[in-house]
Amino acid sequence: MRENRATLRTTFLVIAVLILAALLVISNSHLLPPRPVEAAPSTGERGSFQPVTLRQNSVTPDQELLAALYDSAVASVVNIQVTTQSAADSGFGAPTTPQGGEGTGWVWDSEGHIVTNNHVVEDAQSILVNFANGMWAEAELVARDSQADLAVIKVTPPSGMSLTPLTVAETTLRVGHYVIALGSPFGLDGTMTLGIVSALGRSFLVGETAGTRYSLPEVIQTDAAINPGNSGGPLLNLQGEVVGVNFAIRSEARSNAGVGFAIPVSVVRKVVPALIADGVYSYSFLGISGTTIDAEVAADENLTPNELGIFVSQAVTGGPSARAGVRARDIIVGIDGMGVRSFEDMIGYLITETEPGQVVQLDVIRNGGQMRFDVTLSTRPGESAAATPNRQRFTVGEAIEIAKVAATAANLMDVVDGATAKSAMRGGAPIWVVTLEGGGKTVTAIINALTGEVLDLTSGE
Fold first, then answer.
1. Which domain covers residue 302, as residue numbers?
2. CA atoms of 327 and 368, how far apart (whole Å)
3. What is the pTM of this model?
4. Is 62 marked active-site?
5. The one catalytic residue among 42, 198, 215, 231
6. Catalytic-role residue among 72, 89, 119, 145
7. pLDDT in tens, 286-324
8. 339 in a domain, yes or no?
9. Is position 292 within any domain?
10. 449: Cβ–Cβ under 8 A, 6 or more apart, which residues?
């Protein structure tokens, strides 16, 4: 009997403990409240976009926040389809086959300007913009800049439709901040992906592959899924503001591997308004070649260990730095009082804080001694190579026709059986290199893509 009573007492004790534990869990559930969202008026001056904002003390996005942000932003993001001409034809006089490509863009202002990547629209014969509501419109190229991989196109919206610009962020990103990519990966319009800022301050070589290439600074790295077709689309913060323009991925399979890149708004804010107003953005030019000092560079060049800065491998002859007295093997450690630890630091400062003709002060270490040079910045050579000042450039078809007329007028060719054309650069200007074949002869014509002028005409058997 005593054993039964002990067992019964133990059972009641266990049940009491379980009930008490359950009551404690219920009583403390208020420590994890839901994170509601609210809409706030836009502070941007260019449009009426309504960003979604977090309530005070909310640090992570919940599903209602993300859904509201998507609803607010998606109408300002467009799919861009381009048609280009193939580089070669059948060789039997048949017309060349049009080639297609697509990317993403976003509305910059209510005037119809849309921002995208340069590589989305370069060499485009025609540009079609598809809106989120199913409507579409033909677009014209305003200008493009290969050095920032940015371009501006312009549309007249369909009747009864108005454009809502996105707001460009003024706030500073930090590693770990949530970001959202909107675009058309693999042609899937209106796709939204979520990630974080994985790193800041990356740099990329950009520009025409046949010409001089420069580093694009302050590039954002993110693990938000970015795939082919996302190019030119916005990277947004949780307020729905543009913090970057998606433009590249690092992947062996040309698809998302969690390493995507976006052009920062610090560059966008400088370049896009200039492209709209002037058709070109003028970059400051310091006139040096160099590299960030790391352990390998320090060992190779016999430098003092852990002396951070930029090792100058060359001061361009006749360039701004060389004229001011900067030499090869100098170490740049500051510009205008700002410490410089890497080449990216200096390029970022030059693009976002200076303009050609401005005087900057370089702090330099030479042979262990401190020196300071006043450098008058010039304009980056060949910067207008990709710019199309406020008008469409000559298409490949037009260039071929110009070449045919020129070859016939010069008595170099009587009949044309086939024609090919490819884009290139010469003297800082875009050109078409047109090759005509017929009657056993070959004629090559160089056509200025902006003016239509025949720059060169040569014949070969």
1. 284-379
2. 14
3. 0.69
4. no
5. 231
6. 119
7. 999 889 999 999 999 989 899 899 999 999 888 999 999
8. yes
9. yes
10. 393, 394, 399, 423, 429, 430, 431, 432
